[in-house]
UniProtKB/TrEMBL annotation, chain B:
Species per Swiss-Prot/TrEMBL record: Fictibacillus norfolkensis
Protein name: Phosphate ABC transporter ATP-binding protein
Superkingdom in the source lineage: Bacteria
Domain annotation ABC transporter: ranges: 23-264
Lineage: Bacteria, Bacillati, Bacillota, Bacilli, Bacillales
Coiled-coil annotated spans: none
Xref: PANTHER family: ABC TRANSPORTER I FAMILY MEMBER 17
Record carries keyword Cell inner membrane: no
Alphabetized Gene3D superfamilies for the sequence: P-loop containing nucleotide triphosphate hydrolases
InterPro entries the UniProt entry points to: AAA+_ATPase (IPR003593), ABC_transporter-like_ATP-bd (IPR003439), ABC_transporter-like_CS (IPR017871), P-loop_NTPase (IPR027417), PstB-like (IPR005670)
Sorted UniProt keywords: ATP-binding, Nucleotide-binding, Transport
């Protein structure tokens, strides 16, 4: 009883006593935000540093090769004598876009269908099992996907496609990049659809709508901004994908679209040069910065587009 | 409200013959898991009248109204027994599609829940999913429904604006218009004014009076004055049972059960 009393009193007095020690933490209150600010600044400066390096080296490259030629020439043959070398990035861009397009043809329908299933049809139990599996799929290293493309998908395609397929081609890595992106699109789209309030589903069901009509005509339009943003982020990821296309795509840049033949993407070219014995200061050395810069602009535009779409297509509720 | 105090209590059975029932509920039981939420509910709901369901929180009144259009099945752990006969068909019959039932039995919810679309699209949604595509027909349905829900004059110049720009009371009347657009037979209202201010509440109540000329209305309300003002018959629910069900003036002036009297005089609930 008496103990209770002392306890009751002591809370107030303890708070009083602790005031002094809290004044020490007032120093922390002032210092900690500054540390956080420094961390934030570090990431900003790193970004600026990277962009600056890219820009200066790219500038050097464009002193040797004209920017007009870079963006209009359709041939990319850097590994010859300097006079004969061709630096037409269109060949690399076409490689990247081909792989990206195939990937999106695979990933968007499957990812979206999976998201609709998870959000509108699956029971809470099923969702609890499937979502973590999807996230594991998203955690597989891309080099594993690369070998999967080269040693499993390519031989399979070779059997299926009449006339066969080159050992290095655009189709196989395209499909596998698509498979890699499925969990990302499914997961982000599912989040967006899950965020649609249940009262809206009820409103439509009470009008005699079927679950499919609710999914397609109420939930999907309401979640459209998030769904499209997931597509754009998926595209961005496909453009930047490196390992899969390096391993299974080959190294023959071409502006012709033939998915059964070897191609080279922007990322795969950068790997090829970085791996090789190209000397510092050569045109080829500087070319990877120009290619990197182009890649950076591509993904930057995609990410900005994703942000823009999120805002623009938002159905407010 | 004029209350005619009728000392002579007419036996219940005789009274229930004097209307055409739209719903006949027979021995309805409902469980949420182990929780017995509705117990042996048995009464008839009249055509083209307003039937109010009153009772304290957790008495099963919302659960009951949601069984009438089977929305209660959205809860995965629900189990039911007994039957609800809607115009000679048992709604739990496997052959009777739930979408068909909900096309006949519309619902207005506690919180206004318009779709994040334009006012026009909200009302046109129901007719559209039921296959009506003709623009002229849709235009007419939208105007007729909005007029029917007494909101036409407020929104006629902004039909293409997002429904979420409307006030809460307007949103609720829009939801009523959305419900009217598929010309249902019955309208269920689950505490339709509980999220609204007094002026909007008044408008919805007046609207209910208008609508009962053409529709059978079942309204759940926690507001006894509202039940007394707008309904023709009232059912008092307590702990999942129907304690008393009779015409509204009798229930409020001369309740036959002690528990009803205690509730309507404010001794609990």
């Amino acid at each position: 009883m008496s103990r209770d009393k002392t306890n009751q009193k002591s809370i107030r007095s303890m708070i009083q006593e602790n005031k002094s020690s809290r004044s020490q933490s007032a120093v922390m209150e002032k210092v900690v935000p500054k540390i956080f600010l420094i961390c934030a600044i570090i990431s900003i400066f790193t970004t600026i540093g990277i962009v600056f390096t890219l820009l200066t080296e790219t500038f050097t490259f464009f002193n040797r090769i004209s920017i007009v030629e870079f963006f209009t020439n359709t041939r990319w043959f850097p590994f010859t004598s300097d006079e004969n070398a061709d630096f037409g990035i269109i060949a690399l861009i076409m490689g990247t876009l081909t792989v990206t397009a195939i990937a999106m043809v695979v990933a968007i329908p499957i990812g979206l269908a999976a998201a609709i299933y998870l959000s509108e049809y699956a029971s809470a139990k099923t969702r609890k099992i499937i979502k973590p599996i999807l996230e594991v799929l998203a955690g597989i290293p891309t080099i594993v996907y690369g070998f999967f493309a080269l040693t499993f998908v390519t031989p399979l395609l070779d059997k299926i496609i009449p006339g066969g397929i080159s050992i290095f081609n655009a189709l196989s890595p395209g499909i596998v990049v698509g498979i890699m992106i499925i969990p990302m699109i499914a997961s982000l789209s599912e989040d967006a659809m899950n965020a649609v309030p249940n009262s809206m589903r009820e409103g439509a069901l009470a009008l005699g709508a079927t679950r499919f009509e609710v999914a397609m005509k109420v939930v999907l339009p309401a979640a459209l901004s998030g769904v499209i943003a997931s597509f754009v982020l998926g595209i961005s990821r496909a453009i930047g994908e490196t390992m899969i296309v390096t391993i299974a795509g080959g190294s023959r840049p071409t502006a012709d679209i033939n998915v059964t033949e070897s191609i080279q993407t922007m990322t795969a070219y950068i790997v090829q040069v970085s791996q090789g014995d190209t000397g510092y200061g050569t045109t080829i050395y500087y070319s990877i910065y120009a290619v990197g810069m182009t890649l950076f602009v591509f993904t930057l535009i995609m990410n900005l587009l994703a942000q823009f779409i999120s805002r623009k297509f938002r159905e407010e509720y | 409200m004029d209350i005619t105090i009728n000392k002579q209590i007419v036996p219940k059975n005789e009274k229930e013959q004097d209307f055409t029932p739209v719903f006949k509920i027979n021995n309805l039981n409902l469980w949420y898991g182990q929780d017995h939420a509705l117990k042996d509910i048995k009464f008839d709901i009249p055509e083209k009248q307003v039937t109010a369901i009153i009772g304290p929180s957790g008495c099963g009144k919302s659960t009951f109204i949601k069984t009438l259009n089977r929305m209660v099945e959205m809860v995965p752990i629900v189990r039911m027994s007994g039957e609800i006969v809607y115009r000679d068909k048992n709604i739990f019959n496997a052959k009777y599609g739930v979408e068909e039932l909900r096309t006949q039995v519309g619902m207005v919810f506690q919180k206004p829940n318009p779709f994040p679309k334009s006012i026009y699209e909200n009302v046109a949604y129901g007719p559209r999913i039921h296959g009506i595509k003709n623009k002229k027909v849709l235009d007419e349905v939208v105007e007729k429904s909005l007029r029917g829900a007494a909101i036409w004059d407020e929104v006629k110049d902004r039909l293409n604006e997002n429904a979420y720009g409307l006030s809460g009371g307007q949103q609720q009347r829009l939801c009523i218009a959305r419900c009217l657009a598929i010309e249902p037979d019955v309208i269920l209202m689950d505490e339709p004014t509980s999220a609204l201010d007094p002026i909007s509440t008044l408008k919805v109540e007046e609207l209910v009076q208008e609508l009962k000329k053409d529709y059978s209305i079942v309204i759940v309300t926690h507001n006894m004055q509202q039940a007394a003002r707008i309904s023709d018959r009232t059912a008092f629910f307590l702990n999942g049972e129907v304690v008393e069900y009779t015409d509204t003036s009798t229930l409020f002036s001369n309740p036959s059960d002690k528990r009803t009297e205690d509730y309507i005089t404010g001794r609990f609930g």
